[in-house]
Write a structure and sequence with these properties.
Helix content: under 10%
Order of helices and strands: EEEEHEE
Oligomer: single chain
Shape: extended
CATH class of the domain at 2-94: Mainly Beta
CATH topology of the domain at 2-94: OB fold (Dihydrolipoamide Acetyltransferase, E2P)
Number of helices: 1
CATH superfamily of the domain at 2-94: Nucleic acid-binding proteins
Largest sheet: 6 strands, antiparallel
Strand content: 35-45%
CATH architecture of the domain at 2-94: Beta Barrel
Radius of gyration: 28 Å
Length: 135
C-alpha cells in the first residue's frame, strides 16, 4: 500500500539484539500526516539500519511511503504493525495536484442553437403511452 503525506514527528531510534540469531537490529518510528480534507495520521516503522540510512527521513519532508500492514497477538491482545519497505521524497509543489485539474469557468458565445434535450419529458399514462409500466 502507498500513502503520501508530510513527516510530522520522528521517534527515537530503538535497537537490540535478536534472541534467535544474536544479530543486532535497529528500528525507528515516524508519524505521517496526509493532506486530505480531514487529515489522517499514521505511525510507521522503518526496520534495519541500512534502510534508515538509505531513506534518511527528516521531519518536515513530503514523502510517499510504501508499506505492509500485519498484526500479531501478544497475551490475548492483537496489535497492528505498519512497516515501510520504501520511502520516496515527493516534490512539495505537487501537493493537491494529483491528476485533478482545477475547474475553470469559461464563457462561450455561440451562434449554434442549443442541442436537443437528451432526456425528453416522460408521457403520463393518460396520454396514451404504449407500455403499461407505472413510471
Amino acid at each position: 500500500m502507498d500513502l503520501q503525506g508530510k513527516i510530522i514527528a520522528a521517534m527515537p531510534e530503538r535497537s537490540g539484539v535478536s534472541a534467535r540469531s544474536g544479530q543486532e537490529w535497529k528500528v525507528q518510528s515516524f508519524v505521517l500526516e496526509t493532506h486530505d480534507a480531514y487529515p489522517k495520521k499514521m505511525v510507521f516503522d522503518v526496520f534495519g539500519s541500512d534502510r534508515l540510512t538509505r531513506f534518511n527521513i527528516q521531519v518536515g519532508q513530503e514523502v510517499m511511503v510504501s508499506f505492509d500492514i500485519d498484526a500479531h497477538e501478544y497475551q490475548g491482545r492483537w496489535f497492528n504493525s505498519i512497516r515501510a519497505y520504501d520511502v520516496r521524497l515527493v516534490d512539495p509543489a505537487s501537493i493537491g495536484v494529483a491528476g485533478v485539474q482545477p475547474a475553470t469557468q469559461t464563457s462561450v458565445i455561440s451562434d449554434t442553437p442549443p442541442a436537443a434535450d437528451p432526456f425528453p419529458p416522460q408521457q403520463s399514462a393518460t396520454e396514451g403511452s404504449a407500455d403499461d409500466l407505472p413510471f
